[in-house]
Amino acid sequence: MKKPVTIALLGILLAGRMYAQRFIKVNEDDRRFWINVGAGPGFLKAGQAYDLKPLFLTKAGLGWQVFASPYYMVSNRFNVGLKVGGIFRPTFEDAESNSIVQQKFTSYGFLYADYYLSSPYRILERPYKPRFYIGLSAGVSYIGKLEAKNLATEQYYTFRRRNQDAFLSVAPKFGISFRKIKLEIEHIVTTPFNPDFTSITIISAIPLGNSRYY
User: Fold this and answer.
1) What pTM did the predictor assign?
2) CB 141 within 8 A of CB 196
3) What is the mean pLDDT of residues 19-33?
C-alpha cells in the first residue's frame, strides 16, 4: 500500500518540477534604477483653452516630443519616476486669441507611475512575449511667451496665455514593452493652456548602476 503512494508522490513532485522549469525570467538583471529615453511624433488636438467642452481643430498639427525619464522599479509590475523633456509644437490656429500661434519648443517636468498588466515571468517557449502597461504623469509645462499673427490685423505680436508662463499638465498613457524597447501612446492635457498633445513615442530603457546578473 505504501509503495504505490510513494510512487504517486514522487510522480507529482517530478511533474511539478518539470512544469516549474518551463517558466523563466525575461530579464535576469535585478537592477532597480533605469532611465527611459524617448522620442516620437504627436498631434495637437484642440484650438482654444476650455473649461468643459474642447474645441477640436479640423486639421491637427504635427509636432514632436523628446524626453528622458529616470525611474525606480518598486516591484516587477510597478515603476515610479521623473520625466523631463519637451514638445516641438507646430503652428496652429488659436480661437481664443483669433491668431495663428507660431511653432515653439515647450519644456516640462512630470512625476509619473507605470503599472504593468502582466508578470515578467514567461514560459520557456515564449520568453520575449510583450508586456502591456498603463500609466499616469502629472507636473508642470513651461510655455512662456508665444509669438502669434493676428488674423484680423495680420500683424505679429507676443503674448502670454492667462498672463502666466507655467501650467499644470496631466498625461494618461498606454504602452507595450518588448524588454528594453517600448512603444507608448500618451495624451498630454495642459490647462488652461491648449492645445492638448497626443504622442506616439519609441522608448529605449537603459539600466543604471553596476549589473548584478545571477
Assistant:
1) 0.76
2) no
3) 56
